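Aggregate trends can hide what the representation actually does to any particular protein. For completeness, the protein is quoted in full, as a sequence line and a line of structure tokens.
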Amino acid sequence: MTCLRLAATAGPCLLLASTAIGQAADVTAESLTERLEGVAPAAVLANSTLLNLTSTGEMQVLREGTNGWTCMYPGTDPMCADGPSMSFLQAWMANEAPPDTLGFVYMLLGDEGASNIDPHAQGETADNQWVVSGPHVMIVGSAAGPLLESYPTTVPEGMGEPWIMWPGTPYAHVMIPME
């Protein structure tokens, strides 16, 4: 397991089991931008802060952005998150109460899977409702309260409609498929 920090400073981290760790030594802002192509609209990616996962599990800033977005490929699930979403993600990783914000995350390249009910599950089990999502966006943060009451808490058949991931937890958020 490796500690993943979402900022270039000491602070909360998420333990990862990832084969990508240790393969990031020669990553440049240009090569990471190429790997992230399609994860978000081109204008978001072009002007975002770029974070790279180092061999020690730290997130290294490869480029400071100008648009308030942070894009990264932390192990397996590439994403671009706005400022409030980064605060939400840091709270989730530290198992702390998320800030009273509303944020938006692009994951238009999809993900490699997560439990739909357990925000800290490390892998698929028989009872944790593991789901691999295709291209999607997420609305995160405690200020999303009214939205969290508007959608089902189970994954819709075929994942063609929005649903709430991690329902009943402080990290509940809206998953919106984009296929």
Remarks:
- The longest strand covers residues 49-53.
- Residues 2-177 form one domain.
- Helices lie at 29-36, 42-46, 83-93, 145-148.
- Confidence is low (pLDDT under 50) at residues 1-24.
